[in-house]
Model the fold of this input.
Amino acid sequence: MLIRISSTKFVLEWITESLASLYGIEEVIYSGRTRYQRVDILRTRDFGVVLLLDGFLQSSGEDEFIYHELLVHPAMVAHPRPRRVLIIGGGEGATAREVERYLDVEEIQMVDLDGELIEIVKKYLPWGREGFEDPRLKLVIAEGREYLSKQPDEHYDVIIMDATDPSEEGLSIQLYTREFYELAFRKLGARGIIVTHAAPLLIRDAVVASVQKTMASVFPRTCLYASYVKSLEAMWSFIAGSKGILPSDLRGGEVDKRLEERGVKGLRFYSGEVHDAIFALTRSYLKHVKAEGVTYSDGMFSKAASQNPKSPRAGAL
Done:
Protein backbone atom coordinates (compact mmCIF):
# COMPACT_ATOMS: atom_id res chain seq x y z
CA MET A 1 0.00 0.00 0.00
CA LEU A 2 1.43 3.39 -0.98
CA ILE A 3 0.54 6.34 1.26
CA ARG A 4 1.59 9.99 1.35
CA ILE A 5 2.62 11.96 4.43
CA SER A 6 3.37 15.64 3.70
CA SER A 7 5.36 15.57 0.44
CA THR A 8 6.95 12.14 0.94
CA LYS A 9 5.61 8.84 -0.32
CA PHE A 10 5.75 5.80 1.93
CA VAL A 11 5.16 2.07 1.60
CA LEU A 12 2.95 0.58 4.31
CA GLU A 13 3.35 -3.18 4.49
CA TRP A 14 1.28 -5.30 6.88
CA ILE A 15 3.34 -8.06 8.49
CA THR A 16 0.49 -9.40 10.66
CA GLU A 17 -3.03 -8.11 11.30
CA SER A 18 -1.66 -5.77 13.96
CA LEU A 19 1.98 -5.19 12.96
CA ALA A 20 3.09 -3.08 10.00
CA SER A 21 6.24 -1.67 8.41
CA LEU A 22 6.45 1.89 7.07
CA TYR A 23 9.34 3.19 4.96
CA GLY A 24 9.87 6.13 2.65
CA ILE A 25 10.37 6.19 -1.12
CA GLU A 26 12.93 8.40 -2.82
CA GLU A 27 12.22 7.29 -6.41
CA VAL A 28 9.90 4.97 -8.32
CA ILE A 29 12.21 3.20 -10.76
CA TYR A 30 9.55 0.92 -12.24
CA SER A 31 5.90 0.21 -11.51
CA GLY A 32 3.63 -2.07 -13.49
CA ARG A 33 1.90 -5.41 -13.72
CA THR A 34 2.78 -8.72 -15.28
CA ARG A 35 0.20 -11.36 -16.03
CA TYR A 36 0.55 -12.69 -12.50
CA GLN A 37 1.46 -9.87 -10.14
CA ARG A 38 2.18 -6.21 -9.54
CA VAL A 39 5.87 -5.31 -9.70
CA ASP A 40 7.40 -2.21 -8.10
CA ILE A 41 11.09 -1.36 -8.06
CA LEU A 42 11.75 1.58 -5.73
CA ARG A 43 14.68 3.51 -4.37
CA THR A 44 14.38 3.92 -0.61
CA ARG A 45 16.49 5.77 1.92
CA ASP A 46 16.66 2.91 4.40
CA PHE A 47 17.01 -0.16 2.17
CA GLY A 48 18.38 1.15 -1.12
CA VAL A 49 16.76 -0.25 -4.26
CA VAL A 50 13.99 -2.73 -3.41
CA LEU A 51 11.78 -5.15 -5.31
CA LEU A 52 8.12 -5.41 -4.27
CA LEU A 53 5.67 -8.00 -5.56
CA ASP A 54 2.02 -7.22 -4.94
CA GLY A 55 3.10 -4.62 -2.38
CA PHE A 56 5.36 -6.93 -0.36
CA LEU A 57 9.09 -6.31 -0.19
CA GLN A 58 10.95 -9.29 -1.63
CA SER A 59 14.54 -8.12 -1.84
CA SER A 60 16.81 -5.14 -1.19
CA GLY A 61 20.11 -4.10 -2.64
CA GLU A 62 21.34 -3.38 0.89
CA ASP A 63 21.11 -6.96 2.15
CA GLU A 64 19.78 -9.36 -0.52
CA PHE A 65 23.11 -11.20 -0.32
CA ILE A 66 22.38 -12.22 3.27
CA TYR A 67 19.12 -13.89 2.31
CA HIS A 68 20.41 -15.50 -0.89
CA GLU A 69 23.69 -16.74 0.57
CA LEU A 70 21.86 -18.36 3.48
CA LEU A 71 19.27 -19.91 1.21
CA VAL A 72 21.85 -21.49 -1.08
CA HIS A 73 25.18 -22.22 0.58
CA PRO A 74 24.37 -24.27 3.71
CA ALA A 75 22.64 -26.88 1.53
CA MET A 76 25.26 -26.73 -1.21
CA VAL A 77 28.18 -27.27 1.17
CA ALA A 78 26.32 -30.00 3.06
CA HIS A 79 25.86 -32.13 -0.06
CA PRO A 80 28.99 -34.23 -0.68
CA ARG A 81 29.11 -33.54 -4.44
CA PRO A 82 26.38 -31.30 -5.88
CA ARG A 83 26.33 -31.51 -9.67
CA ARG A 84 22.68 -31.02 -10.67
CA VAL A 85 20.68 -28.22 -9.02
CA LEU A 86 17.07 -27.14 -9.50
CA ILE A 87 15.83 -23.71 -8.44
CA ILE A 88 12.06 -23.23 -8.20
CA GLY A 89 11.19 -19.55 -8.22
CA GLY A 90 14.13 -17.20 -7.83
CA GLY A 91 12.93 -14.83 -10.53
CA GLU A 92 15.29 -12.01 -9.55
CA GLY A 93 18.31 -14.13 -10.49
CA ALA A 94 20.29 -13.88 -7.24
CA THR A 95 19.67 -17.49 -6.18
CA ALA A 96 21.10 -18.69 -9.49
CA ARG A 97 24.04 -16.32 -9.01
CA GLU A 98 24.94 -18.03 -5.72
CA VAL A 99 24.66 -21.56 -7.16
CA GLU A 100 26.88 -20.50 -10.05
CA ARG A 101 29.76 -19.84 -7.64
CA TYR A 102 30.28 -23.64 -7.47
CA LEU A 103 32.64 -24.43 -10.32
CA ASP A 104 31.90 -28.17 -10.27
CA VAL A 105 28.13 -27.77 -10.69
CA GLU A 106 27.32 -29.04 -14.15
CA GLU A 107 23.60 -28.39 -14.52
CA ILE A 108 21.50 -25.55 -13.12
CA GLN A 109 17.81 -25.47 -13.93
CA MET A 110 15.67 -22.54 -12.86
CA VAL A 111 11.91 -22.66 -13.32
CA ASP A 112 9.73 -19.61 -12.69
CA LEU A 113 6.16 -18.88 -13.68
CA ASP A 114 6.59 -15.19 -14.49
CA GLY A 115 8.79 -14.58 -17.51
CA GLU A 116 7.75 -10.93 -17.64
CA LEU A 117 9.13 -10.41 -14.14
CA ILE A 118 12.48 -11.84 -15.19
CA GLU A 119 12.75 -9.38 -18.07
CA ILE A 120 11.92 -6.50 -15.71
CA VAL A 121 14.56 -7.71 -13.26
CA LYS A 122 17.22 -7.93 -15.96
CA LYS A 123 16.52 -4.34 -16.93
CA TYR A 124 16.12 -2.64 -13.57
CA LEU A 125 17.71 -4.69 -10.75
CA PRO A 126 21.52 -4.36 -10.67
CA TRP A 127 21.99 -7.51 -8.56
CA GLY A 128 19.60 -9.58 -10.70
CA ARG A 129 21.42 -9.57 -14.04
CA GLU A 130 24.54 -11.56 -13.24
CA GLY A 131 22.69 -14.77 -12.43
CA PHE A 132 21.22 -15.05 -15.93
CA GLU A 133 24.57 -14.86 -17.74
CA ASP A 134 26.09 -18.25 -16.82
CA PRO A 135 25.88 -20.74 -19.73
CA ARG A 136 25.13 -23.59 -17.31
CA LEU A 137 21.77 -22.01 -16.44
CA LYS A 138 18.71 -23.44 -18.15
CA LEU A 139 15.79 -21.05 -17.61
CA VAL A 140 12.29 -22.49 -17.94
CA ILE A 141 9.11 -20.42 -17.76
CA ALA A 142 6.60 -22.81 -16.20
CA GLU A 143 4.85 -23.68 -12.95
CA GLY A 144 7.47 -25.24 -10.68
CA ARG A 145 5.60 -28.20 -9.29
CA GLU A 146 4.28 -29.30 -12.66
CA TYR A 147 7.75 -28.98 -14.17
CA LEU A 148 9.32 -31.03 -11.38
CA SER A 149 6.74 -33.80 -11.83
CA LYS A 150 7.96 -34.34 -15.39
CA GLN A 151 11.66 -34.71 -14.51
CA PRO A 152 13.43 -38.06 -14.00
CA ASP A 153 13.41 -39.62 -10.54
CA GLU A 154 16.60 -39.23 -8.48
CA HIS A 155 17.92 -36.64 -10.94
CA TYR A 156 18.81 -33.70 -8.69
CA ASP A 157 21.37 -33.32 -5.94
CA VAL A 158 19.96 -30.10 -4.49
CA ILE A 159 16.53 -28.46 -4.90
CA ILE A 160 16.35 -24.82 -3.81
CA MET A 161 12.91 -23.32 -3.20
CA ASP A 162 12.83 -19.55 -3.68
CA ALA A 163 9.09 -19.19 -4.23
CA THR A 164 6.89 -16.60 -2.58
CA ASP A 165 5.94 -16.95 1.08
CA PRO A 166 3.62 -19.73 2.25
CA SER A 167 0.15 -18.22 2.37
CA GLU A 168 -3.21 -19.95 2.60
CA GLU A 169 -4.61 -17.47 0.09
CA GLY A 170 -1.91 -17.98 -2.54
CA LEU A 171 -0.96 -20.63 -5.06
CA SER A 172 2.53 -20.78 -3.59
CA ILE A 173 1.21 -22.85 -0.67
CA GLN A 174 1.17 -25.81 -3.06
CA LEU A 175 4.98 -25.73 -2.87
CA TYR A 176 4.93 -26.29 0.90
CA THR A 177 2.65 -29.33 1.23
CA ARG A 178 3.38 -32.95 2.07
CA GLU A 179 2.51 -33.98 -1.49
CA PHE A 180 5.02 -31.54 -2.93
CA TYR A 181 7.77 -32.76 -0.61
CA GLU A 182 6.96 -36.35 -1.59
CA LEU A 183 7.44 -35.34 -5.21
CA ALA A 184 10.73 -33.58 -4.41
CA PHE A 185 11.93 -36.62 -2.43
CA ARG A 186 11.47 -38.84 -5.51
CA LYS A 187 13.35 -36.42 -7.74
CA LEU A 188 16.35 -36.12 -5.42
CA GLY A 189 19.24 -38.56 -5.50
CA ALA A 190 20.35 -40.81 -2.67
CA ARG A 191 22.07 -37.97 -0.78
CA GLY A 192 19.75 -35.23 -1.99
CA ILE A 193 18.89 -32.06 -0.09
CA ILE A 194 15.99 -29.63 -0.42
CA VAL A 195 16.00 -26.18 1.14
CA THR A 196 13.31 -23.54 1.36
CA HIS A 197 12.85 -20.19 3.01
CA ALA A 198 9.76 -20.08 5.22
CA ALA A 199 8.66 -16.99 7.17
CA PRO A 200 9.74 -14.68 10.02
CA LEU A 201 10.71 -17.04 12.83
CA LEU A 202 9.45 -15.03 15.79
CA ILE A 203 6.48 -13.37 14.09
CA ARG A 204 4.91 -16.26 12.17
CA ASP A 205 6.23 -19.12 14.26
CA ALA A 206 3.21 -21.34 13.55
CA VAL A 207 3.89 -21.12 9.80
CA VAL A 208 7.58 -21.89 10.29
CA ALA A 209 6.76 -24.84 12.54
CA SER A 210 4.20 -26.12 10.03
CA VAL A 211 6.63 -25.99 7.10
CA GLN A 212 9.25 -27.90 9.07
CA LYS A 213 6.72 -30.42 10.35
CA THR A 214 5.43 -30.97 6.82
CA MET A 215 8.92 -31.46 5.41
CA ALA A 216 9.77 -33.82 8.30
CA SER A 217 6.75 -35.97 7.42
CA VAL A 218 8.62 -36.92 4.21
CA PHE A 219 12.34 -36.36 4.71
CA PRO A 220 14.14 -38.43 7.36
CA ARG A 221 16.10 -35.44 8.61
CA THR A 222 15.41 -31.68 8.72
CA CYS A 223 16.96 -28.60 10.27
CA LEU A 224 15.92 -25.00 10.79
CA TYR A 225 18.10 -21.91 10.86
CA ALA A 226 17.40 -18.18 10.79
CA SER A 227 19.15 -14.84 10.51
CA TYR A 228 18.13 -11.21 10.81
CA VAL A 229 17.62 -9.45 7.48
CA LYS A 230 17.19 -5.71 7.90
CA SER A 231 14.96 -5.07 4.87
CA LEU A 232 12.67 -7.97 5.84
CA GLU A 233 12.66 -6.61 9.42
CA ALA A 234 12.74 -10.10 10.88
CA MET A 235 14.71 -13.20 11.76
CA TRP A 236 14.05 -14.90 8.44
CA SER A 237 13.91 -18.69 8.58
CA PHE A 238 15.21 -21.41 6.28
CA ILE A 239 14.44 -25.13 6.45
CA ALA A 240 16.44 -27.96 4.91
CA GLY A 241 15.41 -31.58 4.44
CA SER A 242 17.91 -34.28 3.58
CA LYS A 243 18.25 -37.95 2.76
CA GLY A 244 21.73 -37.78 4.28
CA ILE A 245 23.83 -34.94 5.66
CA LEU A 246 22.21 -31.73 6.90
CA PRO A 247 23.77 -28.28 7.10
CA SER A 248 23.43 -28.52 10.88
CA ASP A 249 25.82 -31.52 10.88
CA LEU A 250 28.70 -29.34 9.71
CA ARG A 251 30.92 -27.12 11.81
CA GLY A 252 32.55 -23.93 10.68
CA GLY A 253 35.94 -25.39 9.88
CA GLU A 254 34.43 -27.97 7.52
CA VAL A 255 32.25 -25.30 5.90
CA ASP A 256 35.29 -23.15 5.11
CA LYS A 257 37.20 -26.18 3.81
CA ARG A 258 34.40 -27.18 1.45
CA LEU A 259 33.89 -23.64 0.17
CA GLU A 260 37.58 -23.42 -0.67
CA GLU A 261 37.72 -26.89 -2.26
CA ARG A 262 34.73 -26.07 -4.45
CA GLY A 263 36.14 -22.78 -5.65
CA VAL A 264 33.45 -20.62 -4.07
CA LYS A 265 34.53 -16.97 -4.08
CA GLY A 266 32.92 -13.57 -3.65
CA LEU A 267 30.73 -14.31 -0.61
CA ARG A 268 29.80 -11.22 1.39
CA PHE A 269 28.18 -12.82 4.45
CA TYR A 270 28.28 -16.61 4.71
CA SER A 271 31.34 -18.35 6.14
CA GLY A 272 32.18 -21.09 8.58
CA GLU A 273 32.13 -18.62 11.47
CA VAL A 274 28.72 -17.28 10.41
CA HIS A 275 27.44 -20.84 9.94
CA ASP A 276 28.25 -21.75 13.54
CA ALA A 277 26.86 -18.50 14.89
CA ILE A 278 23.55 -18.77 13.04
CA PHE A 279 22.83 -22.31 14.19
CA ALA A 280 23.75 -21.40 17.77
CA LEU A 281 21.54 -18.31 17.70
CA THR A 282 18.64 -20.23 16.15
CA ARG A 283 18.80 -22.85 18.87
CA SER A 284 18.54 -20.10 21.46
CA TYR A 285 15.53 -18.50 19.78
CA LEU A 286 13.78 -21.84 19.36
CA LYS A 287 13.68 -22.26 23.14
CA HIS A 288 11.09 -19.46 23.14
CA VAL A 289 9.01 -20.68 20.18
CA LYS A 290 5.97 -22.60 21.40
CA ALA A 291 4.07 -23.21 18.17
CA GLU A 292 3.80 -26.88 17.19
CA GLY A 293 2.52 -26.42 13.66
CA VAL A 294 0.43 -28.69 11.46
CA THR A 295 1.21 -30.86 8.45
CA TYR A 296 0.19 -29.04 5.29
CA SER A 297 -1.54 -31.11 2.60
CA ASP A 298 -2.96 -30.25 -0.80
CA GLY A 299 -6.50 -30.82 0.38
CA MET A 300 -6.23 -28.10 3.00
CA PHE A 301 -5.68 -25.39 0.39
CA SER A 302 -7.11 -26.59 -2.92
CA LYS A 303 -10.36 -24.65 -2.50
CA ALA A 304 -8.60 -21.38 -1.61
CA ALA A 305 -6.17 -21.73 -4.50
CA SER A 306 -8.91 -22.39 -7.04
CA GLN A 307 -10.85 -19.36 -5.84
CA ASN A 308 -7.76 -17.10 -5.92
CA PRO A 309 -5.86 -17.98 -9.10
CA LYS A 310 -4.09 -14.62 -9.08
CA SER A 311 -3.95 -14.00 -5.37
CA PRO A 312 -1.20 -11.81 -3.85
CA ARG A 313 2.36 -13.14 -3.85
CA ALA A 314 1.47 -16.06 -6.12
CA GLY A 315 3.74 -15.14 -9.00
CA ALA A 316 7.03 -16.94 -8.45
CA LEU A 317 5.90 -20.52 -8.53
Q: What stands out?
A: The chain has two domains: 2-60, 64-286. Residues 92 and 128 are 5 Å apart (CA to CA).
